[in-house]
Amino acid sequence: MEMRQLHYFVVLSEELHFSRAAQRLHISQPPLSVAIQQLEAQLEAQLFQRSSKEVRLTAAGQHLLVQARDILERSRRAAMDTRAVAQGMAGCLRLGFVGSSMYRGLPEALAQLQQQHPQVRVDLHELNSAEQVGALQQGKLDLGLMHTMAVPTGLKAQTLLREPFMVCLPEGHPLTSQARVAVASLATERMVLFSGAVSPEYFRSIRGLCQRAGFEPELRHEVRHWLSVLSLVGCGQGVSIVPACLQRVGMPGLVFRPLRQAAAHSELQAMWRPVPEQPLAAALVQLLQAQMTSAAHQPTPMPAA
Asked: Which of 6, 32, 45, 132 has the most CB atoms around its CB within 10 Å?
């Protein structure tokens, strides 16, 4: 059966008159008659009882009418849904993210996406940077938000945000009296850092900062989540160097101070598979770029020392 035949059949079933049905279909009557005859031959069933006075549906025709309307409606919906997905108006986006992106405008971007495209569903997966790269390569994610990573072959990336590092100190620490902290001042401090296995680029950046200041950082703890870093600092287990956005967490017992050296920055990048094209991922990247840039320029009250 062809969709054209089913469409002709439904119109004729509603009109029960070949001439009126042909006019409604904007065709002449002979092609309509031929299409119905072909459909009956394919189904090996008479669909209409024809006479000089009337056209009536047979029992087989009445059964097919229900099915044909359903098939045509599902075909229409499938076409609309496919078009919407192709245009980035609908569908599902599997999004990987690191925890810090929650303080860099991601929730606001997702809310805006939902408002603009109510049919879009975003499945969120909190993963570290290395895990996201693997998931992208395996086709398990459509878009990843991660700390700066080398871009593997077959993937593309775009930097969304670049912001300075800050020193994170426990309340009452002597360095909280300084408006800006020199990296060299941390030479004798125990450090709580994000794991090098989880985010090698971040780990190398912090280690490089310390080495340029003349010392090797004394690692007290390496952890997998930013909230773990902040929690350990808050309970006096060490100090840390973190992206500026983590001031927005609002965890008690912490004080953030800018670094005197501004050479190193924390970067967040979006990474995705360019083939096949993903309009929905591209649309979300644009929203994230705007939201994260806005969030980076919003002033955050400095905690009291």
From this structure: 132
pLDDT in tens, 113-122: 888 888 888 9
- Beta-strand pair 55-57/254-258: unpaired
The CA distance from 21 to 10, in Å, is: 9
For residue 294, pLDDT over 70 is answered with: no
Q: Could you tell me the pTM of the whole model?
A: 0.66
Dist. CA 144–CA 135, nearest whole Å: 9
CA-nearest of 128, 166, 186 to 257 is 166
Q: What percent of the chain has pLDDT over 70?
A: 92
Question: Which structure tokens are listed for 22?
Answer: 């042909």
Contacts of 17 (CB under 8 A, 6+ apart): 55
pLDDT for 256-285, tens place per residue?
Answer: 999 987 667 888 999 999 988 888 888 889
If we measure between CA atoms, which residue out of 246, 284, 107 comes closest to residue 163? 246
Q: What is the dihedral of CA 32, 36, 42, 46, to 10 degrees?
A: -170
In the block, residue with structure tokens 């090996």: 44
Report, in this order, helix, strand and coil percent for the chain, each rounded to 5. Answer: 45, 25, 30
